[in-house]
Structures are given as structure tokens and as C-alpha cells.
Amino acid sequence: ANNIRFTSRVQIFEIGSIYLRHQGQELPDEPRRLGILLTGPREKESWLGGDTSPVDFYDMKGVIEGLIAGLHIDGAEFVRGTHTSFHPGRSADLLVNGQYAGTFGELHPRVAMALELDGIDPIYLAELDLEVLLAHLNDRHPVKPLPETPPVLQDIAMLVPVDMPAAEVETVIRKAGGRLLDEVELFDVYQGDNIEAGYKSLAYHLTYRDMERTLTDKEVAKVHKRIMSSVEKQLGAKVRK
């Protein structure tokens, strides 16, 4: 707690065992866990500039997504977190093929105060179950060929309830987009001025592509319209046009 007051930017991880006692068992189980901590500015202050705004929930989510992608683990999804040590609405659980694989989020202000970590930038923590992650590693994984056809880029922005996970929105977008929707990237989350109370704005970059031919504007417009209709009907989102 004292050291962090003299180090504004902390991005660390640790792998180690935890100890879980079971009734009727003399020795505890010792499953391995991966712990991650992020706090402070995204980048170091420099004469070259850079983004020195504080890290947020999506930075931690991005770290975990990068880990999952690097390990080529299929079937990963994020659902609303329930751990009481985290800030409500700023946490998530990681599932792999429906199996619980960890949790992450912003340390709850009351917990931070109890640990004498209040008065500094928000702290984001993750604890991932290495045993579950390693059990879902694939010995072989497919390699996606480099595309030979041009992409069509579109953006979509919408208002959703403030407690709705972005992952839930992305799932609906991907399902509605089908095979022509190549990539979905969340690039902006905003709450504040000009946003209806109880809502937040989510904005996504959508990349459309057919691996065998160039898409027409009419084909892209049809899929894009289907995505807008799906998020409105299934999630009650208000698409910003």
C-alpha cells in the first residue's frame, strides 16, 4: 500500500498456488492461479506524448483476451461478474466452454479503503484458474489465411443499459452478422453529458469481408441493417443513427 503511492503505473502478474481445504481431506488442494494487477496511466509520461489516462475495465479485459487468443483457447466468453470484492458493473467472470475459469474487475472502493489503497487511481485485478485454461489448450489450431479481398468498414453506436456487459452486445452482433462479419472491435464506451440517465454509449468497428470475392454495398447494407435490428429487438438498444 505504501509503495504504490510512489509508483503511479503498475502492471504486474504472478503465477502461484492457492490452498483449498476440504472436509475429510488431510492436505489441501493446491490449484495454480494467475494473478494480474493494473493501475495508473496506460503509458508512461514521455516527451513523445502518449495516453496517460488511467487504465480501466476494458484494459484488463483486453489483456485477458490477448492471453486467450495467444493460447488459442476456443469457447471463451465473458459474463457479468458476481464477486463482491469488485465494483458492481465493472467486473466479469471468464467462462471457457461453460466452465468457470476466473474473474476480474475494479477493486471495490470499500475494499480499497480497508487495504489503505484509496485515494489513488482505480485498481483492476484478475484471478484466472490456470488448471482450467491449460486443460482447454489445443495441440493444434487452425491458421487463418491472409485475406485477398478488400474489407468493408462500418461503425455502429448504440445506447444500452449501463449494467449491460459489452460482451453480451458483441455476441448478438456476431450472430446477426454471420459469415460476412469478419471482425468486431469495441472502440468507445461513454457515459456522461448528452447520454440518457441509466444508459451508456457503446461504439464498435465492424469489418465485413468475403474471403472469395469483393462484397457489394448492397450486401453489406443488408447485413448491417440486420445487426441494427437485432440489437434493438434482442437487447432493447437504441442505435444512434
Describe what this molecule looks like in 3D.
- With 241 residues, this protein is α+β, with helices and mostly antiparallel strands.
- The chain has 2 domains: 3-135, 2-Layer Sandwich (BirA Bifunctional Protein, domain 2), CATH 3.30.930; 152-240, 2-Layer Sandwich (Alpha-Beta Plaits).
- It is 24% helix and 34% strand.
- The chain contains 5 helices and 10 strands; from the N terminus they run E-E-H-E-E-E-H-E-H-E-H-E-E-H-E.
- The chain has helices spanning 57-70, 109-114, 130-135, 166-177, 217-235; strands spanning 10-17, 32-39, 76-80, 86-96, 99-107, 123-129, 152-161, 181-190, 199-208, 238-240.
- Strands 1-2-6-5-4-3 form a 6-stranded antiparallel β-sheet.
- A hairpin with a 2-residue loop joins strand 4 (86-96) and strand 5 (99-107).
- Helix 4 packs across helix 5.
- It is globular.
- It starts with 9 loop residues before the first strand and ends with a strand.
- The model has no long low-confidence stretch (mean pLDDT 90).
Pick out its properties.
Alpha-Beta Plaits, alpha+beta, 2 domains, 241 residues, globular, 34% strand, BirA Bifunctional Protein, domain 2, four-stranded antiparallel β-sheet, six-stranded antiparallel β-sheet, 10 strands
